[in-house]
Every structure is written in structure tokens, then in C-alpha cells.
């Protein structure tokens, strides 16, 4: 039985490098059912983004959320993928009804940028930004690590209508990996195909690509769709609007309705609820959600 909805880390014991493999199936479908994906090309970008953020979340130690966001002025307005440190994922797409282009760069248009944010429960958020000047998300992320982290990193990302999968190689931080070792691993990994990543288990992939290397493979880590929205977090978002804005909305209707962009959950706040949250501003704020008046 093939491995689905899981992540595997591995280490090259003699080459100063590490790797991560992931494949999504049910978690991808659960995330997709709440999004409007106008065509197969956008569908593939959404799957690749979710696979990418899971891979990246496994490269650092944190407790909180990692958020990958691509923004632009093209037909694809926003592509967001999020993973917690426990590999709980969610994502969203905002686009025109019709999205032209086959590559990520074509879809997001001029001025596109990728923002990678780590929101840690124990410290201030970390954020890095890079322009979308390459065709694929994997290439954009490679540029990000070269410019922002100055750490040799390569990703291979593939997605179909049913699955998404990814492979990441990275030089070990703080170690001076031999350049020849890194180049050899990069060349070997570069031979991987979409069919292989989408269809083979991690052990089979590693054997095909790196059977002459000393590879230590770690335990399976499950991945699942789970939205982190809550009434408390939505209340934090509303309170940030301020009293005058909220009271203006309530003059037009009896309550405020908020829909979570990630999972479709609906929250309603009447006048009593709004007064309560304004008087208790010490609430946790989450990602902004649209307000329907």
C-alpha cells in the first residue's frame, strides 16, 4: 500500500545534506473542496504550494504556523498555503473566474512576489520576501533560499488532480558541505519524474535516486487538513476594525457574518456579541477573513 498524506525526513550521513519527501492525497482533497479552482493549471499550483509548505515546515524547529503566500496583479491574485508544526495544512486561492497562463509567473503577472512567514508561539513572526521571476514555485523557492537564507536548497514539486508530492534537498545549516557532494546529490535528484514522485513511496524514491549514498530515513509523520479558525480568532479580526466600523455595519443589518476563507465555516455576531468583543479586546487575532455585510 502506498504512503499517502505523510512526510519523511532523511539524512545523507556522508554528504552534509538532508532531505524531505511528502505526498498528499486526502488532505489535498479536503483542502480543495473549500476553494474555487478555475482550471487544472491553478489546481496544480494549489497542490504544489501545499506540498511545498509542508516540506519547508520540516526544515526548521518552531511551534506555530508557516505560511507561504504568492501575490500578484495577474489573474491569480493570491495563493496561500499554511502548515503547522504538527503538519496540519490548509490553503486558499483567490483568482479571476478565468486564469490565463500555464506557469506561476504568467498567472500572477507583473510584480508578483512570494512571502514566507513563520508565526511562532514563542517569538516575533519571521518573514522573507522574494519576487516571482521564475516560471515555477520550486524555482522561486530555490531563489528565495539562495538570496535570503544563503543555504543550498532545491525543491521538486508535482501535482495532479488527485495528488501532490514534493522532494526537498538542503545543505545542513552550519556545515560546509563539500561542493562536489552537493552537486552530485542535486544532479541525482534532478532525474526524478512526476510519475515517480506522485506514485512511489519514499523508500522506493530514495533507492532509485540515491542507492549508492548512505541515507538514514526517519519515521513517518502524518499530514492532515485542519483549519485553525475559531470564534475567538475571528473576534480578534473584527475587533481590529474598531467600534465605528462595526457599528456602521450593524446599522445596516442585525448581525455580522464572517466566512472562513480556508474551510467555509460561518460565524455570526449580533449587537450583543460585538459589544462584548469590543469590551474585551484582549483576544487572539488570526488571519483576516472576509466580512459579508
UniProtKB/TrEMBL annotation:
GO molecular function: protein folding chaperone; unfolded protein binding
Keywords linked to the UniProt accession: Chaperone, Cytoplasm, Disulfide bond, Redox-active center, Zinc
One Gene Ontology CC term in the entry: cytoplasm
Signal peptide: none
Biological process per Gene Ontology, one example term: protein refolding
InterPro entries: Heat_shock_Hsp33, Heat_shock_Hsp33_C, Heat_shock_Hsp33_N, Hsp33_helix_hairpin_bin_dom_sf
Cross-referenced SUPFAM superfamilies: Hsp33 domain (SSF64397), HSP33 redox switch-like (SSF118352)
Matching CDD domains: Hsp33
PANTHER family reported in the protein's UniProt record: 33 KDA CHAPERONIN
Name of this protein: Molecular chaperone Hsp33
Amino acid at each position: 500500500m502506498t504512503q499517502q498524506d505523510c512526510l519523511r525526513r532523511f539524512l545523507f550521513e556522508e554528504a552534509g545534506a538532508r532531505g524531505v519527501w511528502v505526498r498528499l492525497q486526502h488532505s489535498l482533497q479536503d483542502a480543495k473542496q473549500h476553494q474555487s479552482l478555475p482550471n487544472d493549471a491553478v489546481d496544480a499550483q494549489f497542490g504544489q504550494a501545499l506540498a511545498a509548505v509542508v516540506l519547508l515546515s520540516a526544515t526548521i524547529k518552531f511551534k506555530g504556523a508557516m505560511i507561504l503566500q504568492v501575490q500578484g496583479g495577474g489573474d491569480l491574485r493570491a495563493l496561500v498555503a499554511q502548515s503547522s508544526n504538527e503538519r496540519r495544512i490548509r490553503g486558499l486561492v483567490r483568482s479571476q473566474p478565468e486564469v490565463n497562463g500555464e506557469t506561476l509567473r504568467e498567472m500572477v503577472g507583473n510584480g508578483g512576489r512570494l512571502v514566507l512567514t513563520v508565526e511562532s508561539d514563542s517569538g516575533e513572526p519571521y518573514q522573507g520576501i522574494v519576487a516571482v521571476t521564475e516560471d515555477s514555485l520550486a524555482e522561486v523557492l530555490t531563489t528565495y533560499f539562495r538570496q535570503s537564507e544563503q543555504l543550498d536548497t532545491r525543491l521538486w514539486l508535482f501535482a495532479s488532480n488527485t495528488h501532490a508530492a514534493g522532494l526537498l534537498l538542503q545543505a545542513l545549516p552550519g556545515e560546509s558541505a563539500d561542493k562536489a557532494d552537493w552537486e552530485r546529490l542535486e544532479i541525482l535528484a534532478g532525474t526524478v519524474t512526476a510519475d515517480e514522485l506522485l506514485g512511489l513511496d519514499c523508500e522506493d524514491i530514495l533507492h532509485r535516486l540515491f542507492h549508492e549514498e548512505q541515507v538514514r530515513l526517519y519515521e513517518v509523520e502524518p499530514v492532515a487538513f485542519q483549519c485553525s479558525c475559531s470564534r475567538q480568532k475571528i473576534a480578534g479580526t473584527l475587533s481590529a476594525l474598531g467600534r465605528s466600523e462595526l457599528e456602521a455595519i450593524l446599522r445596516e443589518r442585525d448581525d455580522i457574518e464572517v466566512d472562513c476563507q480556508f474551510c467555509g465555516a460561518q460565524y455570526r455576531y449580533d449587537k450583543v456579541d460585538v459589544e462584548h468583543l469590543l469590551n474585551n479586546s484582549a483576544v487572539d487575532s488570526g488571519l483576516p477573513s472576509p466580512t459579508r455585510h
